[in-house]
Amino acid sequence: MKRIVYYVASSIDGYISGINDDVSGFLYDGKGVERYLEDLKAFRTVIMGRSTYEFGYKFGVEAGQPSPTYAHMMHYIFSDNLRFESQSEQVVVKRMDIDEVKQLKETSETDIYLCGGGKLAGWLLENKQLDVLKIKLNPLVIGKGVKLFEGLGGSYQLELIESNTYENGLQLISYSINY
């Protein structure tokens, strides 16, 4: 069974975006970002929620089409009401059903990249389906916005796998999640 890896940029105070989806303070270059982009090449499957997919429209993603950044991946968008007039075969909308997630974990050829957001990540964690957390920790405090995890009802123990610090203060920190 493949693992779901939540590989996400976060501020020091645990936000993946600010108010109105503002991500302007996050770092977009440097060796840490290069490492992240290189790591993405290992994934053939990406999952995301509706809000994250639609956030991509601001960066040139066309409705129903795969993200250019993840063009080598099969896209699964979890939403109970998202529909497209025209849809690539590389983009599949799945119901918010934990059995759909379990099926993906069984059938994916690689580990699964969770591309945000906080609601889907919280839902997966609460349902014990999130396996690895890889944080691109930015030297930034946001204060308000979208949390790393939304809607949690409990606490979870993590085990450090790896930690690297880069020239611009960005840290890549990897944890396994212990259920």
UniProtKB/TrEMBL annotation:
Molecular function in Gene Ontology: 5-amino-6-(5-phosphoribosylamino)uracil reductase activity
Residues annotated as domain Bacterial bifunctional deaminase-reductase C-terminal: 4-172
Alphabetized InterPro entries for the sequence: DHFR-like_dom_sf, RibDG_C, Riboflavin_Biosynth_HTPR
GO biological processes: riboflavin biosynthetic process
Coiled coil: none
Annotated PANTHER family: 2,5-DIAMINO-6-RIBOSYLAMINO-4(3H)-PYRIMIDINONE 5'-PHOSPHATE REDUCTASE (PTHR38011:SF11), DIHYDROFOLATE REDUCTASE FAMILY PROTEIN (AFU_ORTHOLOGUE AFUA_8G06820) (PTHR38011)
Protein name: Deaminase
Organism: Parapedobacter pyrenivorans
